[in-house]
Structure formats: structure tokens, C-alpha cells
Amino acid sequence: MKMTKKTYLLLALLVAALLFPILVPNQYYLQILILVFIWTIAVYGLNTITGLTGQLSLAHAGFFAIGAYSLGLLTINAGIPFWAAFVLAIVITTIISFFIGIVALRTKSHFFAIYTMSVGFLIYLIIYKSELTGGVRGLIGIPNPAPIGPLTFESIQSYYYLMLFFLLLTIFFMYRLFHSLLGKTFVAIRNSEELAETLGISVMKNKLLAFVISAGLASLSGALYASYVRFLGPQMADIHVAFEILLYLLVGGIGTLAGPLIGTFIVVVLTQMLQFLEEFRMLVFGPIVVLLILFYPRGIVGGYLMWRAKRAKKQKVADANTTTKGENGNAVNH
After folding, report:
1. CATH of domain 27-321
2. Whole-number Å distance between alpha carbons of 107 and 143
3. Domain assignments of the chain as residue spans, ordered by start
4. What transmembrane ranges does the database entry give (predicted)?
5. Tens digit of pLDDT for each residue in 108-123?
């Protein structure tokens, strides 16, 4: 099989990611990348429902929190082994999202966004007020991931590789989804629900499936977050977290495969670089984000794909003109 430039680039990035903890054993940098990996998984979830099917869900932080708290409660209160609780946390969140989606997806456009924002706020209130979740005190003492054979997860390097594994698994899943018939069905619904229905596509069924997949990825991210920080507070379900996830997606490129990873990396790293400004960092960070969205309304990856498509179109026109001139010249000579 012929190796393309894109394949070489992806392999180089994979090797760089695998060697990073060895070449740069700085714990601060590793912590930043771990957070980037965790949040990127959540952004891929939002990209499924918002980027592919065109439904803006603002309940994403709520599903993220359900996944995190489910893992915490199942391991601490119920005493369930870590990996069994990890799987159950995702299952619980997807079941809850299924029933929420049945009602939410009966609304459309901004009504759907408002409804899901209300659901997200309701989840936040339940976590904040409930004694089961620890309320405002939060949940403390979530155990480390249990060893898998000889692999233990106690050092920051082991956490790095664990989060990288789940990120690569998510990217592979999203790649398959983007290039599958199901992914194309989601895009058809995003482009026109009426046209999709005339083609025999069950719009409600597919939107519900996208919603559940989105919530499942959010819960996966939340469970990983809980296992890493080992302390949970109700603020993780707050609406500002949902808007942060949406920001990562908008900066990277909504509806693109690489957008969630690039957007999350840029925003998280930029935020960390401006930490020295303390409360004034938003005065610098805000205008940078505004400029990015103004000049790249489709995100960085979306803008690059548009530029490449225009370039390919111009090249195609130039090649056609060259061929036409050559044929005209041959006709004159004859």
C-alpha cells in the first residue's frame, strides 16, 4: 500500500505522542496533555450530535458529570471494582440520555438547545442539592484504575498512556463513523431533515442514536476525568463547562474529524499559558478567540479544508484550460 504524506504525518504525530513522556518528563506538561486528551473525548461526543446531525446540545456537561459521579458512587459507595464501575457508568449515562433524547428531540433548532440547557441545569441542581453526591462538598476518594495484568496506573506517565489509549480509541471510532453509511445518514439529516425523510431515513431514530453516542462519549470522558482528579464537585455540571466544550469545538472546526483535537489542544494550552495573568487572562484570551471565530468561522480545520478545496478547484480549472489550449494549438497546426 502506498504511503501518502497524510499517513506519514499521522504516524509522526503518533510516535511523538508515544515518546513525549520519555523525551519531556515534565509533570506539568504531562498534566496539561492528560486534560487535553480527556476533554477532547468529550468534544468528539458533542461533534457527533452537533457537528454531524446539526443539533446543538447544551446538556453535554451534565452527561459528563453523570459519567464521573456514576463511577465515583459505584466505586466508593457500592464497592464495585473499578473497571466494572467504569463500564456501568457509561451504560447508566447512555440509558438516561436515551430517555432524555426521546423528549428533547421532539423539539428543533433553538428550542432543542434551550431544552437541553434546562436538562443540563437540572442535572447540576440534583448534584448540588443531593446528599448522595455529597452536595456542595463533592465526592472524594475515587480509587485509581485497577491494574490490568502487569500494567498499573499510579504514576502520571501511566495515566498519560491510559488517557492516550482511550483518545486513540475514540478517534478510531469517530473515523469509522465519519466514513460509514451511518455517518453519511447523520450528515444528510443535518443538511435537510425533510429531504432525508423523503429518502426513507428515519430522522428521529438516527438523531436519537447520535444523541446517545454523544452522551456515551461525554460519560467516557467524565469517568476518565473522575479517575484522574479523584475529586468531584457540582461545578463540573455547570453550564459554563458545556460552553467551554462548545468553544473547543468551534475553534477546532465543527463537523470535522481533526477539529475537536486541535481546538481542545489550542484552547487548553493557551489558557494555561495565560494563567500568570490570573483574573485578567480573559481580557487577552477573549479577543484571541473572537478573532479566530471571525477569520475562521468554520474553525481552524474547517478553514483549512475550505482553502484546500478552493485550491484544488483552481488547479482543476487551470489544468482544464491548459488542456483546451493544447488541443486548440494542435488543431491549428493540422
Report:
1. 1.10.3470
2. 40
3. 27-321
4. 7-23, 29-46, 58-76, 82-105, 112-128, 159-178, 208-226, 246-270, 282-307
5. 888 999 999 999 999 9
